[in-house]
Amino acid sequence: MRVPLSWLREYVDVAEDATPDDVFASLVSVGFEEEELHGFDITGPVVVGQVLSFEDEPQANGKTIRWCQVDVGEANGGVRGIVCGAHNFAVGDKVVVTLPGAVLPGPFPIAARKTYGHVSDGMIASARELGLGDEHNGILILAELGVDAPVGADAIALLGLDDVAVDINVTPDRGYAFSMRGVAREYSHATGAVFRDPAERDFAELQPGTGRTAVVDDRAPIRGNVGATEFVTRVVRGVDPSRPTPPWMIARLSLAGMRSLGVLIDITNYVMLELGNPVHGYDLDKLDGGIVIRRAAQGEKMVTLDGQERTLHAEDLLITDGSGPIGLAGVMGGGTTEMSGTTRNVLIEAATFDPTTIARSARRHKLPSEASKRFERGVDPLIPFVAARRVADLMVELAGGTLTEEGGALFSEVLIAGIDLPAAFVPGLIGVDYTEDEIVGALEMIGAEVTAVDPSTDSGTGWVVIPPSWRPDLTDKWTLAEEVARIHGLDRIPAALPTPPSGRGLTELQQGRRRVANALAAAGLVETPAFPFTTQEQNDRHGSASGERLPGVRLANPLDGQAPYLRRSLIPGLLQTAHRNIARGLVDLAIFETGVVFLPAPGVVYGTDEVPPLGVRPSDETLAALNAAIPPQARHVAALFTGHVTPRQPGRAAEEYGLSEALDAVRVIADAAGVAIDVVQGSRAALHPGRAGVLQVAGTEVGYVGELHPAVAADADLPGRAVVLELDLDGVLALAGARVAAASLSTYPAATQDVSLVLDVAIPAAEVGEALAEGAGSLLEAVRLVDDYRGEGVPAGSKSLSFALRFRADDRTLTAAEATEAKLAGVAVATERFGAQIRD
């Protein structure tokens, strides 16, 4: 919210010497976030000048310039010669002249310059050059703005160009601060300055009269809500839309981030910024009959003010007349009844609409607007009468209209439930010993009505608090406590770390997950969390071994309509991350993610509309029902490798990532989890045939590893091959069982021997290694495959597997004979099982 300081001063006393930084500090102290400072960025002499004469001079380039004599006042050098390319002014017109030394937005410094055969001693400015709008309709003529000032007067002050606006970030729960009224009140809270409410008016003068009452068609309400609780109309006749918007209003709108669109629209925007209630104006002569507020028919269409035809949804709330939709309520008006240069009579609408309806319509049609931003956060239900009358008064004052007795009002009684606030609750929750006077004073300061509870009742000491109508975010005693803390300063809250109860900490499962993630990061992989949303196609491709269609959880309101499903695998997210990095020139990647996947059971419908109330612990039955509405969620770990593990360098060629790096990552996971993970030959739809393995723990499948199928890699826009792995991390940790204490390290030296075995090519090397370990017994400390040879010297259909064996005893130094004996015992088992023979 951009807050022009001159506007803020109208409703609250801001010290004359207060700087924008001072205002920022005050607003930050009551919970807003400082953004940036906005101004017109104009310095130097900018004055009122009067055109005394000019000569039109055609140029060789086809352009005709004017050589003007402009009086800028004796104090500014008297009459100056200025070259001007515009032609919309006449002799005698008063204009804005920027003299040498001035700097306009851009920055655009002004100096005396020789051009078109003359020395132009300054520049006659347009509205766009001064930062007052985007349109360049020629020179700014002061008379057309309804402004008069003596020649030589300071035009910066005259046009409000010396004003600045502080920009604050308003959190979604504080929609009332999207108005000067709300920000001024908060500034008053922060500084104690006197606040003047622009909405305080005699209710009798706000009555809209008769003849233009709206009707609500509630035959098809959504969830029992017809969508409109207030709808006030006023009629102003005889307006002149050609009248200029006053410079002070243009300046304030510009600082607030809005451009001037003509006096009638400017007035409605101004009042919206002032009071926080969006107001819409209709060309009364374009209306066809009375106004009906209703839901849209499915497939109904309308053209909004931006010229777009929109297909409506049955939940959209419409403003209609006899011709059909004339407005998408709370979002944007319709093109058929918009105010224009021919408008003479205006119907003013000020309303309050259901926030949920407006928010969904704005998002559904991708049509965020200043109006929807306010309605979806909640508008003060008592303000529409004031807003409609304020617009009407300004149209009378600035557009020459006449306020009539015509109008109508649709409204419901505003009932705000009281909130019980025990006296000890706020100090107990916040941790500050607030006095009762401080609690009551803070709540009354924000506009709440506070009534003390009779201490003789069972409820004890405390208060019943009725929040102000403009604070729909105050719903319970917790939000009231936050207000007390905010008003009295968050710096009063002590900084104290809680003492954790003894004997608690991370669970075994949480510790295991952390060990695995830390181990992968320590091994050089980078953790890259991704959004858990994907497509049905990606779920089918990566969520199953054969690529068949599996059940998926589709979101009712997805963030991205192109990816509406919850993921069954982590691989799609890693592929998106890899694609994004490669597109930015980072082509050598080793990335991983740990996260949940969603595995719905076939035929089960998940989700529920039954949401328990806040502030009340749900029953065991309610919790069980909520848990049953959530699909099973397993935590997986996945990794992706692509590019080069080592880049090309002098004397060494580049080495690509391959299966060996993926298998190393599997071993890292296994060591961190405390299990032994075996790799057996397998297949998977998304992986390259013959280059895929199934990962097992004690015979139980826990994941897979392999090279992506070239078609899958190409579909993900990966320029080379990629290797992936994915494991059920929770399943792996569950199979690890209880934590095993680390064995003591032997101080005796190891004995190492190698063995090469010839056997059938189809026999997995892992099973041969298990046979060697089983036969060698307890002396064998480690067995590692070091070579797989197939070629000359090895019979066809066979292969030679070489293993490095390390032997060690806990109580003595092994002899070579003992190591050899253990080795041969292992070979004997391998021979018995697989027919393996020692290679000569």
TrEMBL record:
Residues 40-156 form the TRNA-binding domain. Residues 534-553 are annotated as: Disordered. It is found in: Cytoplasm. InterPro entries: aa-tRNA-synth_II/BPL/LPL, B3/B4_tRNA-bd, DNA-bd_dom_put_sf, Fdx_antiC-bd, Fdx_antiC-bd_sf, NA-bd_OB-fold, Phe-tRNA-ligase_IIc_bsu, Phe-tRNA-ligase_IIc_bsu_bact. GO terms for molecular function: phenylalanine-tRNA ligase activity. It holds the Pfam family B5. Belongs to the phenylalanyl-tRNA synthetase beta subunit family. Type 1 subfamily. Tetramer of two alpha and two beta subunits. This is Phenylalanine--tRNA ligase beta subunit. It comes from Microbacterium capsulatum.
